[in-house]
């Protein structure tokens, strides 16, 4: 299916809310809240942990990456399940580039020889680990390449690591680098290596970060054994995600495509992930300076930087195929507001079997859908339309979700109330990130879901964890006083990204976890056998996730007045603004200090002369920025959101108009920057983006923050104005409500 | 020699200082300062790096622990050197208990068997490593014992580690514990194990702390190889050091001795140090819970706590011999104040060859003595008496120095102006600790000694290092603004302890280091071959140490007005007082918080239920203490020391009396507590002691601080008064000067 017409026609209903503010559920009248609670009870009764376990077992029974027969089978199975639950369902197909390995060779050629295994072995304790049709260990979007060069160890391969290499007098130009996984999204490592002139990049899982340092290794324990490899994408998704050949538009069959060589998010160098078994002989052979203490990993020898005779041969070639990308889209039309959509999604493609990533999330989503289907049969219908999406191709580049959002941009911006994402799930604590206006609603839901292990609400357990984890008495006291959990700001790494950052649709990302640590991520060992031992043995957290997201979806679907509270957005953006001012001040002070230290030869005098560590390069002074436009816009936002709150409170006694609801849920689009972020215009949100050098990790007020961090003073000042303009657009927009 | 009469008769000279404050050396008139600088130039010219290298090579050429033929030969060689330099010299002999191994056996008996090597192998790259007469790897003062029991891994074996084991539900009662070296003095580990009911204690060097994590291992690099073992004392020296059979008195031949079983500083359980080669099979065999992340070391597997089937057999027996302890005491009688002694010392005994520890310090001391001897020949004499001491038996328990100080207590308290200690030396930065009144003098000296590698003063380089090492911008700015280095407070671990903490004699401990990291400490690999590669290849830091301590000694010897500045003591004790008030407040707040957390079940709710971690035990609330007596005493001290400073400044224009000088150098004795510290009365200093649970690490205002830390509230209040009394004694004493 492609270029399909979306299900629902546009109609407008002004609906009545009475006394909503005094009910126990925001956005509902007292009476309606009682009804909603009874619906939630019914919803809960239809959820079944064993069923979730069976779904995980079935859908992870074979490898099912995008473009594979297994992937098609999983999409079909999900389609059939939705259908059997009574949902309208279709498969939206796109046609996307997806590279798979043709040749993979890594050999050390000097001072000794070693041929890397590049293979995770089958284990008798893991039933699916020996299956055919597994994708080999590789990084998708590596360039084709055949290079032989000296090897340099670059720690985590981040910009600051290259600053240190500069101080050590080591260049990676013309070399192959070997970097540890961790401390950033993996795609940053080859990107930064390429920026520094490296010819190739090897990424390995060090046992200090992902292996025996954390506990017993698989299959005895959950952690990465010596042969485990983390597959994964190395597309430069901070530039844009989705099909690299169709930026900004859906990858329909007839879409206009650019040449692969024109795609700004594709690497020019080959990249390969390896196990610590394969890394050990290479690292052990390295000569040159001993690595700085903080760079040392968990292998049993002194880590060196290289620069001696150690030479490796890296040869990689890929099938650069266009493959079908099957998004399963299921819906239940709303009874009152069919053109207001509650969109909920989880991807279905995996690198291999993916019992945890993504099937544990899909299983919860299907359980929600089944329960809702059961409720349908009893005559209930949601007031707004529910749209449940199982995305394909998330792993390589958020392919399915991005192409779908690009393809349906205008319709989504008009109709999508919220996008609720999950991407796997396990035992532990509620984690939720997303648009701050939704924070109160999420907290209300979290207070009603019971933690399977402790019997308290998942909100209470989450707050207890925050208190226990706080590291100072003061921080613990503050955490203990908290009654609400905060929504984390969203960067990237899952399918919420196109909704939030390209389309400006309020988004949430929700999961349980924290007691599921292990080394299975993107490995053949992310299997049902692993999941049922180490992730969520009773599958009760699958039920908890279904309860949590189900309530969020059902409350959004049925609320008289949509529970959006922009005062929470003001609080966050005010904090981000203050952070930026502090960041600039701190950088100004530390730069001035460093200039002084260089003038006084402090680095030279303090250095061990036997180690030949150069002083850092001098940096330009940090100017004072005019933050006033942003500060004024944020101050204005406080007034606007306070007034809005008063209006909404009053309106509970009167009719809440659907125009108001539409205004509330479409408000976040005001924050989209017309031109997007500098050098990556796909990212349009003025407040949230994945970091250009963090990958998944969020940068708030990213235009300003990254300009300051990257010492681009002119751009920083310009971005302050653009962010202020975006917030003022929101101010003016929200002002309409009380005008 | 024993019960010797000390060299020098008492005489009193009132000597004239003119305008001392305006010269460039504190305590000297301008003219005298010029003369002193010329003497220092002469002193420097006689120092020779190659000679220091030769001394290190010669004196470390054979094993020379206390009681050995090699030890006697080294003492004789030092004696002869002093003699040849023109010093009066004698050997003061004591008779001390010193255990050496008779039986050493460590075997794992279940689940598999392993017999520990307990042997550091000879290396062809290390000429002395294969010699006979090496002391085997052992911990002196281990009890005899033959125990077989289950094995428990206790991290560093400190009280907080046992708190965590309690939370894990693990008891060491009736077990043998295995602890990592580090994070405290080694003797704390078996002491705490014994307090918790363990039957035996194994201490090993983990490669994360002392091995390949730091760099290449010996002999390729300097760091501990898999077979290296740290010998060392595990006497409970925080109770009292020296011969355990003769507490408080010199261990002369006829001294009254207690029974070994009565000695409060001897362990009841066997203790053995092992290499990481020997530790690996034991640790790998451990079952039970995975160790907390922070406990994990550098061996390539997941560390477990134990509690399963792993069983070890530890059998140790010792020769409990009384051996001669040879202190070499050399002197040059002062021309004007022969009964005022500048005492300088460094021990000569080693665990094995001890090129670094202690011979590099002895070599610098002998080079000072030779240079001074050369000056004597040209007609110069010091005004005060120089007493240079090479101590025996420091390694097992500060035996030589402690017995000497106990034996000569009254005379030393009358005559000793200062005790200046060193204990090895290497490439790097000046480190100096000691009595704060000497801080200004040490800084003046440090400003005149040139760093061999950078050509700036050792003071400037040291301050540059402090600035570079500061971790925040604010800390770096503060460090950059500093013009003076601070003297660290002295705990224990070398021969200054009896002088400072038993006798109240102003003390200094001075060394260079910080660019000499390695794994040779108390190993057979602390050899000349190691030293010349990794410690101070040019021996120029030996010259720098000789220059530094030589200047300190010569300035103290020749000053008209002794350069003691008690304002610096006030500053430090004021800071310690504020630290204690903060400590009590912080503990009160954190205890109240923890009580709240327990009441709210925060630990239980936040814990991973699969890990069965119990909440911590409830703690009693921290009361408010009356710090007023101490605060008043310290406030008074500020006035007293300010007035004293005015008196001393004025006196520079008049005659400085020798009575004044005596008053100045004997002042620190006012700080001695008549009864000493609780449960360890040997330690008499109210301001400085080694920590009861740190061993070497200092505790300032120890009576108060440890009572608070150990939650003994009654004792804390009592100790506040005793410390205040001590400071008030000093106030009244110093008041005499300006009365």
UniProtKB/TrEMBL annotation, chains A, B:
Residues 1-20 form the signal peptide. CDD domains: M28_PSMA_like, PA_GCPII_like. Residues 327-531 form the Peptidase M28 domain. Residues 153-214 form the PA domain. Residues 626-734 form the Transferrin receptor-like dimerisation domain. Keywords: Signal. Belongs to the peptidase M28 family. M28B subfamily. This is M28 family peptidase. It comes from Ilyomonas limi.
